[in-house]
Batch of 2 targets.
Target 1
Amino acid sequence: MTDQSTYVPPKVWTPPAASGGTFANINRPVAGPTHEAGLPVGKHPLQLYSLGTPNGVKVTIMLEELIALGYVQAEYDAWLIRINEGAQFSSGFVEINPNSKIPALVDRSGPQPVRVFESGSILVYLAEKFGAFLPKEGVARAETMNWLFWQMGSAPFVGGGFGHFYAYAPEKLQYPIDRYAMETKRQLDVLDRQLAEHPYVAGSDYTIADMAIWPWYGGMVRGELYEAGEFLAVHEYKHVRRWADEIAARPAVIRGCKVNRVRGKPEEQVAERHDAADLD
Ligand SMILES: N[C@@H](CCC(=O)N[C@@H](CS)C(=O)NCC(=O)O)C(=O)O
């Protein structure tokens, strides 16, 4: 250990005036809206409110895959929610996701709007609505759900743990970086062993489990997250890399990754999507 903490927790925690670090300005210890503002509604039955982060692109990949399969009812409006400006705390957004996190979806195709939040819940909702990318029964369905929930439970150790302390925290602290690098590498090894034996994460077919896992773990092995490829020696996970590269080449994945993206190369950014042509 190279860092020695001198922090002694008080009896009762109070929020710091400024904790520093990326995203510190949007952290609050309470839920609920900070301001009144409604959400825009476009012409399609599916309205997505999101941002092109790993959690956000899970859903745009799924929608673009559905459209590529010919499901015209999966056409959608994707509105940009700038989380660094606090748009997730508007009254309109909190109504559709009380947890104030992107992505959130509203399905307006029925008699009353259905709100869907949590990316895993959105993937299952869409898979069941259109009957695609989620096997209907048996081992294949159980495996898809196993790996989907594995992602939902595991990725916070990568994003909120490793990524936060390695890339975003105001100072580099060895203890949390060691702890979360250990866990991130363990998770990559879990995936590598699975993908050594199967073409896709849940078995022989491409499913919502791949769509959920790829933006995080595919991004890690392709060196796109936190610039941590060398640090984590991601070249060790060659089966994850094989799978990640195959998925990255899918046309619907390429399209989905552009939606609500506001960083990177200008030609890969489509801040809002209201028509298929917006991505052409
Ligand atoms: N478990 C959630 C996580 C969503 C999440 O953490 N979203 C982040 C962006 S990737 C967010 O909206 N952060 C805003 C905030 O923390 O205020 C999901 O999978 O939908």
Target 2
Amino acid sequence: MVKSKDMNGKLQRIVIITMDMENDPLPETYQGLKFLPKFCEVLDKYCIRATFFVTADVTQKFPDVVKRISEKHEIGCHGFAHENLSMLPRKKQYNLIKMAVDTIEKVTGSKPLSFRAPGLKANYNILLVLRDLEFVCDSSINYFSRTDFFILWRSKVEILNGLVEVPISIPYFLLNVSPSLTKLASLVLPPPLVIYFHPWQFMKLELKNSMRARISAGTELLKKTEDYISFLEKQEFRFMTMKEFSKLYLSSI
Ligand SMILES: [Zn+2]
């Protein structure tokens, strides 16, 4: 058993790369998924296993894509059809997440253990539902916004309602906007470093009404991602999945 005073040292320089696999923002198409093989090639080049949070909707429409990714990476759950779960009653939340779990399990052969709420919009009831459905970890809180989550802003990993709560460290648009700021932030933020992508970020988006989507996306993002991963490797970050990290965390407390 690792003593808690050693925990910070043990958890230093860990990075979890995550991909939220969902439809494109607007119009509701799935063009972004075409870029996943290239993204996975970059991960392969550096022998990285990542966590892909998939919606049931994507899993039903593209079972072969999800199955192939599950052979190397962790598949987590990202809701049924990217609905705002925080607006729904608990029973409805349970039904949608349970259906999503069953859909993912049918395709991959494994029950997802990690969860990220669509739009990072979670609430206390969702955490209760996740515990009922035997999830191990949730990653719906982020450091950089106090408004997306009802629970007070948190800055570290903790056990929340029986789940390992692993906050996201860096806004998804930052790498495209400023690779140097992303690198700097990566060195100073508390561990583990959790970064997240969406498939549609790797294409050119023509969205007049979504500033964040527009600034976050572009075909050059793949190159920036590889450069960033190479930087993290040089800085001796250890890459792991949410599931692996949660296990390590639980063994550390
Ligand atoms: Zn999402």
